[in-house]
Amino acid sequence: QDGRKAANPAFWWVSEEGEEVKWSFEELGSLSRRAANVLCEACALQRGDRVLAVLPRVPEWWLLSVACMRAGIVFIPGTSQLTAKDISYRLQASKAKCIITSDTLAPALESALPGSQVLKSKLLVGRGSRDGWLNLKELL
Which residues form the AMP-dependent synthetase/ligase domain (predicted)? Predict the structure, then answer.
């Protein structure tokens, strides 16, 4: 109406159930800055540190990958089909200081975590909570 074009979304995600998440470039920038602050402050990560993300392809997967680029943190993606043995190996080989997963995958991953000497923080994506895990939604 006023001669301006509608802004194209920077990110547009649709779940199998039809739930949509749309972020403009401004929203993605703001959210990724906040997520980078969570990684640097709450998770105590620094430039060059590694993060292992075992997540389904939810919006937070892309948000955290952009946040890691912003903060200079190495983002190591992992599929939700990894076994505890696979995760343990990846934690040891990468020397990841943080693991990020969903509230539904966390119980399966916990058996792989005690062997890691370098792991400092565990970040949960989702609505649930677990002892010893930080919740991304609460920290954002």
Answer: 8-128
